Amino acid sequence: MLNRVHHISIICSSYEKSKVFYTEILGLEIIREIYRKERQSYKLDLALNGVYIIELFSFPAPPPRLSRPEGTGLRHIAFEVNDLNVVIEKLKKHNVACEPVRIDETTNKRFTFFADPDDLPIELYEK
């Protein structure tokens, strides 16, 4: 019935901050950027390794939402990485703090969390 996840949609409070975070810090590629005048909204389509994964929206004065991993709704976005320590160090250079590294009790794989500019939790999961 379902083939794959098509994309993840994120509404940000500061379009410029989030655009820099997702493209320059996390390294996602811009597929297209559209300004929708009637909605006073930007839509930025982003890819990882050539695969469309995130659409980033800006809207005038979006309401805040609880977004910690244990809150109701979207729990988090997770990215697989080859070497967790290398990625954590790169994020530190951009003043992005990661939580202490944990071990998945089921897979024995290492993982950690950090937050985007709107405090959306993002997980790094070591391959």
TrEMBL record:
Q: Which Pfam families match?
A: Glyoxalase
What is the top-level taxon of the source organism?
Answer: Bacteria
Alphabetical keyword list: Metal-binding
Outline the extent of the VOC domain: 4-127
User: Which GO-annotated molecular functions does the record name?
Assistant: metal ion binding
InterPro entries recorded for this chain? Fosfomycin_Res_Enzymes, Glyas_Bleomycin-R_OHBP_Dase, Glyas_Fos-R_dOase_dom, VOC_core, YwkD-like_dom
Q: Which PANTHER family match?
A: FOSFOMYCIN RESISTANCE PROTEIN FOSX, LYASE, PUTATIVE-RELATED-RELATED
Can you say what this protein is called? VOC family protein
What organism, scientifically named, is this protein from?
Answer: Ginsengibacter hankyongi
